[in-house]
Specification:
- The protein is of the alpha/beta class and 253 residues long.
- It has 2 domains: 163 residues, P-loop containing nucleotide triphosphate hydrolases (Rossmann fold), CATH 3.40.50.300; 68 residues, no CATH class.
- The strands form 2 sheets. A 6-stranded mixed sheet has the order 6-7-8-3-9-10, with helices on both faces. A 4-stranded antiparallel sheet has the order 2-1-4-5, with helices on one face.
- Strand 9 and strand 10 form a beta hairpin.
């Protein structure tokens, strides 16, 4: 039977998450300006741009951490602009953060159990199933009983993804999950993200390590100064003169 999250064969991919003419300011600082983006169900989308381009702020608006100053956000055909991050998580929108934020005094498994119980509203056997599935997918079964504050950076990054997956998401927003890792460590995450996609979960990934990002995404979006300046096939976007001028001079290729 086809995965319910995947579009039917021969049919266009259905949109799962979209923002329409979103703007966001902090005082006099305009961080997002008239941003519109749609993410198709099952798609893998990369977001790039220089520091300060508004990438993480866009994630915060999409996930419900920030309310937009204007514009709207829809998830699975429903207007969720007024819903907070907890409500959107229950619907199926999960995210990671640039700096991992585990509960340091808890074990890895306990961290995931909190995510399953609070983020997915799961209890009992269902919560345990979500935790074990996330542990296996992220390669963390051998550290399940370790305290989170004893983990190295790579395992903290794995835990950040595993916690998001334990909420049983339909879409996963990854914010610089490769940041601070060696190239080899980042490559390990690529395999995990490919498996996430294979399970029918939509992925949107902000990343500065572009050559790693390009191994996964089908579509690339470039932001600058709070606006989207290019959106399309990844290699075509990378060759766009506006992208080269705005971004490529500061990226690791």
């Amino acid at each position: 039977m086809p995965d319910a999250r995947s579009p039917a064969a021969g049919s266009p991919a259905a949109p799962i998450l979209s923002a329409t003419r979103v703007a966001k300011s902090f005082g006099a600082l305009r961080v997002l300006e008239d941003v519109s983006i749609g993410i198709a169900r099952g798609e893998a989308v990369g977001i790039v741009g220089p520091n300060g381009a508004g990438k993480t702020t866009l994630f915060n608006v999409l996930s419900g951490a920030y309310a937009p100053g204007s514009g709207s956000v829809e998830f699975d055909g429903r207007d969720v602009t007024a819903l907070d991050a907890a409500a959107r998580c229950r619907l199926g929108v999960a995210r990671s953060h640039q700096v991992p934020r585990p509960f340091g005094g808890m074990t890895v498994f306990e961290n995931l159990h909190v995510a399953a119980a609070v983020g997915a509203g799961a209890g009992g056997e269902r919560a345990n199933e979500l935790c074990l599935s996330s542990l296996r997918l992220c390669g963390m079964l051998d550290v399940a009983n370790r305290r989170a504050d004893t983990l190295g950076l790579l395992d903290r990054k794995r835990l950040e993804m595993a916690r998001a997956l334990a909420t049983d998401p339909q879409i996963l927003l990854l914010d610089e999950i490769g940041g601070g890792l060696t190239d080899g460590e980042a490559q390990e995450l690529v395999g995990i993200i490919r498996e996430i996609l294979a399970r029918g979960i939509t992925v949107v990934w902000i990343e500065h390590i572009v050559h790693v990002l390009l191994q996964v995404v089908q579509r690339l979006v470039c932001m600058e100064s709070g606006r989207i300046i290019a959106d399309g096939e990844p290699h075509a976007v990378m060759k766009d003169p506006a992208v080269i001028e705005a971004y490529l001079g500061s990226v690791s290729l």
